[in-house]
Write a structure and sequence with these properties.
Length: 152
């Protein structure tokens, strides 16, 4: 299955980069998934997938990983009909394109990751480091100057 090990303990964490799954609360175990959330995906065996209607799955599409909800399962055709909760259209995906099932969502951790990855946060971090370096060098110069004056 896309080169992943089939051990059900294998998982990966990804960040959701669109709002396609953010249509408000649902009655499903995995409800809304806001943009920037981190999701935990457990790899599945396509022959023993355990996927049910209402689950959120991750699948490969044009070198991207998409997370959408299962609307129906066609075991004979080995396909899933999927839809982002906030989307109007559905897509039909072969079992073999499914990477895994979303088993956890963390919007707060995703926001932190987005903040850390943003250019403004990186710039602010560099400014803070530069200020700390200048303050440290200033303090070192002051101590060295004081010690030189006291030894004279």
């Amino acid at each position: 299955m896309n080169g992943h090990s089939l051990d059900p303990r294998d998982r990966e964490v990804r960040q959701v980069v669109t709002g396609s799954m953010d249509a408000g609360p649902t009655d499903f175990e995995i409800s809304t998934i806001p943009k920037d959330s981190l999701v935990t995906i457990v790899y599945l065996d396509p022959d023993d997938h355990g996927i049910e209607v209402g689950d959120v799955v991750a699948y490969s599409w044009k070198n991207l990983v998409v997370t959408h909800r299962v609307l129906s399962i066609d075991e004979d055709e080995r396909t899933l009909t999927l839809k982002g909760d906030a989307n109007r259209s559905t897509e039909t995906v072969p079992f073999d394109d499914v990477i895994g099932k979303v088993v956890g969502v963390s919007a707060p951790l995703g926001k932190i990751v987005s903040l850390v990855k943003s250019g403004s946060t990186l710039f602010l971090g560099m400014v803070v480091c530069a200020v700390l370096i200048v303050c440290s060098l200033s303090e070192i110069c002051r101590i060295v100057t004081r010690d030189n004056l006291e030894s004279d």
